[in-house]
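Support reply, case 0932

Customer input (verbatim):
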Amino acid sequence: MKLEANVVYDEDLLEKNYVFFDRQEAGRRLGFFISKKNIPVDIVVAIPAGGVPVGIEVAKVLNADFNVIVVKKVLYPWTTEAGFGAVAWNGSVELDTLAINRAGLTASDVNRQIEIAVKEAKKRYEELRQLIPEPDFKGRNVLVVDDGLATGYTMMLACKVVKERGASKVMVGVPTGNPRALSLVSPFVAFIMCLNVRSTPIFAVADAYQNWYDLSEEEVRTLITNFLKGRA
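Our regenerated output:
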């Protein structure tokens, strides 16, 4: 397995499943891993929903600011999990054309799924901005965090948006990921810190966690609210 030079991982966790108890523990371990690299991080930006508990713990360990960036997968019409690209709340789109062609999706299918994803992203953005204001990335070292990289498209889009908004340096921190996704994202960032790299043919982020479930919007809001109260 060959990884790009800017991908840093934990050799002890290579190709292993169920290495984290939950997202919070993964975030703490990721935070300590990054802290040992002496890489300055001004703000941790999490991708909701699953990235929020990870990102909060990373921000605590690094004593960095915390915020969110709202991007969502563009899902296949027949599933609530697998996707063929990503959208941001502002209408930015990244698509996996190979996946679209393999699935036999029509232009109408693609446009309909993009429309659904953008609508959901805007709704989440509006709700979360009532809790936490829009961050200022200008001149700052930004670490974008999620609970894992499966295809890499949501992370790639998030990093592009952060860079467009003036970040000095964009980095990625994830507890787990596969080499294909890491390779997709690596050209757009300075570093990727990924504790658990797995090159299995069928990759699932959930397989890195002993305790895994989909977070509700209410849980995400509660996590952010409690973090902000603790920092007040």
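We compared this against your earlier run and they match. Two observations from our side: Helices lie at 23-35, 51-62, 97-103, 107-129, 153-164, 179-185, 217-231. The radius of gyration is 17 Å. Please reopen the case if you see a mismatch on your end.
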